[in-house]
Amino acid sequence: MGCMNEVKKKAVRTQRNAKECVMRAKKLTREMLSFWKKRDKELADMKRKKEKFDKDMKKRQQEEEENLLQKKRLEYLMKQSEIYAHFMANKMGM
Q1: What is the 3-state secondary structure (H, E, C) of 23-40?
Q2: Would you say residue 80 has pLDDT above 80?
Q3: What backbone phi and psi angles, to 5 degrees, belong to 59?
Q4: What is the pTM of this model?
Q5: How far apart are CA 26 and CA 33, in angstroms?
């Protein structure tokens, strides 16, 4: 009888350990899924921020190029007006 009780106790312990193992595995699986979902979200956010930053940089660069082009146009017009004024002054002086 003592032997049979020991075998039953060992069987119960084995079953309890198996249940605990399954429960730990499920918990670990949930934690892993949560971790990877969070990581994927963080990566997507980083990618979105990088794309926005690149877009803003490109926009700023285009604005700077446009400002430089407008400055060159204004300088050209100023030179043309100086040339025109010079010739008009010579005609008026004659």
Answers
A1: HHHHHHHHHHHHHHHHHH
A2: yes
A3: -65, -45
A4: 0.55
A5: 11
